[in-house]
């Protein structure tokens, strides 16, 4: 990270940061320790599957491949990997702990998979550790510069941090490697727009509108590019197109009102503003509902998704049993999210 | 290092160059480096130095926190710069917090109180609160100064967590609390920014006071974020409508919030600034609301009746239609087109927003086009000042930064509780982050809140004072003149006769060569604070002022010629003649 901001390193979630420091490279496919662990894992995963089937609820003990350099050189630490029927942690902190164990495991087992890095980086970002997330991808890209997703994710982190010019550079690189990345044109166009490269933004966005829901967002940004170019008729058409695709697109209604006002269509602009106001009120209600939601429920859903992703990674490497175990646990976590009774909002809502 | 210390001393308030030379001459005959710093360069055209220690300001802010995280704690407070005793020097007022439940009585030696600090000259200030009759221990949030009784001395209005307070300036260096008789207490609310304005053009100052949300100690809601304790926010409580008080001219105010159309809407208000956004000769009100409802723009019909028009004017939300987590609001001509633009600070990671005034009451979000959010994405930005710090004729932006959660580093490594502040220099209409070059990175980080900007040492450049949450304030001395800055400047103080005494709301148009510089007199701006009643114009290389036009509120337009540069001048309504103002303005 290029800035000199204060970054205390005392958070409890920093325990997995050894990996973030680029140590993932030590888990090479030829590592003897890794090979040993792979064998151990297969054996243990088979055992785990049996446990799943019989629903004994007994945790499986696995040799834990540590992500730190010490672990790579020393004896493996033992961890307990939850069975599908094991209780899902109640609180956010416990869920994050389980997620970290999952991520440490999957990265050590499948270090060359970009999906593994994506998982680790996603968890780091969830913990507010964007630096680690970016470092993970950089380390991966040093070894696998052809990984389009790596440049893509770096670009998105930079977007989140307001470094739009840098983001545009990463996203452009990602686009060259894989133009099919999710909404790559839209992200790139938005970065260019925010970097005040308005004409380039329009050039990227216009041919990439498409028919999917993301097309509404691309039209929205194209509309803003047209406003900046003072092409108000084209802006109006773009915002109207976004609304046609997504009628509740609040921001598009605001853009449409702006374009109409600039075209001198005051009454139409006021009607668009009225719709914007109405949708904003709905947005506020949704935000209030969101606020009342237990943050641990959100984390359960994330964790379930991460187990599913981990299961797919294992499947890609042919570890069927491992994949099944991970997917089963993910399903259990997901069920717990659905059945969770959130405490009253006064005690559990997200803060400012 | 001795030399380094001496250099710092030389740059601090209260040490004149001759004294410095004498000191250096005794110990280090070969110390030319300790002479005034090099002239401004293109690389570092603006330079500040931390002059807090030399200023002898003893104030230390408290938010009264004990770990329970009451909503009001991070909101305290704004800061004010104004001349309370009429001696021509700009004084300081620091609101303070107060102990909240959970704080043990013995935790501090004496209860915290607000501080009025008199400017003694030479960069030194003295806390005169008690002598001035201001023994205020309310939980302070906002402050604004204005001469509500037209007696020639600035009175003080405070917003608090509780009742609002009005202190009348008796003109003898003391104040008296006239809250009850003036009828401005307004119940128990979470107050916010405020502004004085002559809403109805009758020659006295009316009062607009924003209110935040309906929080009380009893309905406190503990919150968490990603497993960490956090402060509740504006979405947790319904907002209060803001309050509007009409000045009856007899020392009393009438709460006209409903009649004037202010209470028709409600939002979690924070910063407030009065401006004539549509150039129709009356003062409108712009209110920053924190993340909900969009910001408000109350358009004045000239008689003190208001209609909320922010959405149609393009200043309610940012260009993407998203609400702004508005903190501070500032008004000024950012692009030099003669129209007053608006600037709003924002919650991290969103950028502050610059609304460019297009004329006819219409604005556009020009943040991307002007890079007015440069470097701000990772900060919660609070106080702000749009001012010309290098006298080049273009208004720069200062942003006070600091998070509200003191544990934010535990769950977000993109920001921190204590941060550097930001200085964005206006270079040809685009803003460039020059914080490091300006010396802001050499200054200890704090969780800054309010900021006020005025020429505190009367040397012709604009200094800054920043209220830091839970800590002592920071006083930043602008070194433009010491570094041999050659740009010219002009300061004007208005004296209304038919209109209000300080000319609040008056529009000042300065013509120099082929350029025109525009400003208005505001009373209340930034993050819940007050500054800049004395207008400051950077003139660049212009060697003279052709004329100054003033459009008085409630009066006509008047032209002043023969206004000198590089000094403070008083312009009195109806006189048509510029007069050197009392004070310590340097010789041209």
Characterization of the model:
The complex is a heterodimer of chains A (352) and B (588). With 352 residues, chain A is mainly α. Helices cover 68% and strands 3% of the residues of chain A. Chain A has 17 helices and two strands. Chain A is globular, with a radius of gyration of 24 Å. Mean pLDDT of chain A is 75; it is low at 1-80 and 342-352. Helix content of chain B is 6%, strand content 34%. In chain B, β16 (269-275) and β17 form a beta hairpin. Chains A and B meet through α4, α6, α11, α13 and α14 of A and β12 of B.
Q: In what range is the share of β-strand residues of chain B? A: 25-35%
Please, what is the average pLDDT of chain A? 75
* Main beta sheet of chain A: 2 strands, antiparallel
H/E element string of chain A?
HHEHEHHHHHHHHHHHHHH
Oligomer: heterodimer
Compute the CA-based radius of gyration of chain B: 22 Å
- Tally the helices of chain A: 17
Regions with little confidence, pLDDT below 50 for 5+ residues of chain B: 1-37, 584-588
Structure classification of chain A: mainly alpha
Helical element count of chain B?
A: 6
The number of strands of chain A is 2
């Amino acid at each position: 990270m290029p800035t000199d901001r204060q970054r205390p390193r005392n958070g409890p979630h920093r325990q997995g940061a050894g990996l973030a420091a680029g140590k993932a490279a030590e888990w090479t496919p030829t590592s003897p320790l890794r090979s040993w662990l792979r064998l151990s894992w297969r054996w243990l995963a088979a055992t785990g599957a049996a446990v799943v089937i019989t629903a004994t609820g007994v945790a499986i003990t696995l040799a834990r491949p540590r992500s730190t350099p010490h672990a790579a050189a020393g004896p493996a630490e033992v961890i307990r990997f939850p069975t599908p029927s094991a209780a899902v942690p109640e609180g956010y902190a416990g869920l994050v702990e389980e997620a970290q164990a999952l991520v440490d495991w999957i990265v050590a087992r499948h270090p060359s998979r970009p999906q593994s890095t994506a998982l680790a980086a996603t968890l780091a970002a969830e913990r507010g550790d964007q630096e680690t997330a970016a470092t993970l991808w950089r380390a991966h890209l040093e070894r696998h510069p052809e990984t389009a997703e790596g440049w893509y994710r770096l670009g998105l982190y930079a977007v989140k941090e307001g470094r739009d010019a840098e983001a545009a550079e990463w996203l452009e690189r990602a686009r060259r490697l894989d133009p099919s990345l999710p909404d790559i044109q839209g992200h790139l166009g938005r970065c260019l727009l925010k970097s005040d490269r308005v004409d380039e933004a329009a050039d990227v966005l216009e041919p990439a509108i498409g028919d999917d829901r993301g097309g509404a967002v691309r039209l929205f940004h194209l509309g803003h590019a047209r406003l900046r170019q003072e092409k108000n008729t084209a802006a109006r058409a773009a915002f109207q197109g976004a609304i046609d695709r997504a009628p509740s697109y609040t921001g598009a209604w605001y853009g449409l009102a702006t374009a109409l006002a600039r075209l001198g269509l005051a009454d139409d602009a006021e009607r668009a503003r009225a719709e914007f106001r109405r949708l904003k009120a709905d947005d506020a209600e949704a935000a209030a509902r969101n606020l009342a939601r237990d943050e641990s429920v959100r984390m359960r859903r994330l964790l379930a998704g991460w187990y599913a992703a981990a299961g797919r990674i294992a499947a890609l490497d042919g570890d069927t049993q491992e994949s099944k175990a991970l997917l089963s646990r993910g399903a259990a976590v997901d069920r717990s999210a659905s059945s969770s009774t959130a405490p009253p909002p006064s005690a559990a809502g997200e803060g400012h | 290092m001795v030399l380094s210390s001496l250099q710092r001393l030389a740059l601090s308030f209260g040490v004149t160059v001759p004294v410095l030379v004498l000191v250096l001459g005794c110990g280090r005959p070969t110390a030319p480096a300790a002479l005034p710093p090099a002239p401004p360069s293109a690389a570092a055209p603006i330079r500040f130095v931390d002059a807090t220690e030399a200023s002898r300001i003893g104030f230390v802010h408290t938010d009264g926190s004990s770990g329970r995280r009451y909503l009001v704690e991070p909101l305290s407070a704004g800061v004010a710069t104004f001349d309370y005793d009429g001696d021509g020097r700009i004084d300081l007022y620091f609101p303070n917090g107060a102990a909240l439940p959970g704080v043990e009585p013995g935790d501090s030696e004496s209860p915290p109180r607000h501080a009025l600090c008199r400017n003694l000259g030479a960069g030194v200030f003295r806390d005169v609160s008690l002598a001035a009759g201001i023994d205020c221990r309310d939980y302070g949030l906002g402050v604004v100064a204005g001469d509500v009784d037209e007696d020639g001395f600035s009175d003080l209005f405070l917003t608090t967590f509780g009742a609002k307070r009005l202190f009348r300036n008796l003109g003898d260096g003391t104040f008296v609390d006239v809250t009850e008789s003036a009828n401005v207490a307004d119940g128990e609310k979470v107050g916010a920014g405020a502004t004085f304005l002559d809403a109805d053009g009758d020659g006295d100052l009316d009062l607009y006071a924003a209110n935040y949300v309906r929080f009380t100690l009893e309905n406190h809601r503990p919150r968490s974020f990603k497993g960490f304790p956090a402060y509740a926010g504006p979405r947790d409580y319904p907002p209060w409508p803001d309050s509007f008080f009409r000045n009856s001219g007899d020392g009393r105010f009438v709460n006209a919030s409903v009649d004037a159309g202010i209470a028709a809407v409600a939002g979690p208000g924070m910063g407030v600034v009065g401006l004539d956004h549509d150039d129709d000769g009356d003062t409108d009100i712009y209110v920053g609301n924190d993340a909900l409802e969009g910001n408000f723009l109350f358009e004045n019909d000239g008689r003190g009746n208001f209609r909320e028009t922010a959405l149609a004017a393009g200043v309610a939300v940012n260009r993407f239609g998203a609400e702004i987590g508005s903190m501070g609001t500032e008004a000024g001509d950012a692009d030099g087109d003669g129209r007053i633009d608006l600037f709003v600070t924002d919650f991290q990671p969103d950028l502050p927003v610059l609304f460019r005034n297009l004329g006819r009451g219409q604005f556009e979000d020009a943040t991307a086009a002007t890079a007015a959010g440069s470097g701000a994405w990772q900060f919660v930005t609070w106080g702000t000042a749009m001012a010309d710090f290098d006298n080049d004729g273009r208004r720069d932006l200062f942003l006070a930064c600091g998070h509200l959660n003191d544990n934010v580093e535990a769950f977000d490594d993109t920001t921190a509780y204590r941060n550097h502040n930001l200085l964005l220099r206006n270079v040809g209409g685009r803003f460039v982050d020059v914080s490091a070059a300006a010396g802001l990175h050499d200054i200890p980080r704090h969780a800054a809140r309010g900021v006020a900007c005025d020429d505190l040492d009367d040397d012709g450049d604009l200094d800054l004072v920043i209220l830091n949450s839970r800590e002592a304030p920071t006083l930043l001395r602008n070194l433009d003149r010491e570094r041999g800055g050659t740009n010219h400047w002009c300061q004007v103080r208005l004296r209304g006769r038919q209109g209000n005494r300080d000319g609040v709301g008056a529009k000042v148009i300065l013509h120099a060569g082929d350029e025109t510089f525009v400003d208005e007199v505001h009373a209340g701006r930034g993050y819940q604070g007050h500054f800049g009643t004395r207008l400051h114009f950077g003139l660049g290389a212009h060697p003279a002022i052709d004329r100054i036009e003033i459009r008085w509120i409630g009066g006509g337009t008047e032209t002043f010629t023969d206004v000198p540069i590089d000094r403070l001048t008083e312009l009195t309504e109806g006189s048509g003649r510029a007069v050197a103002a009392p004070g310590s303005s340097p010789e041209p």
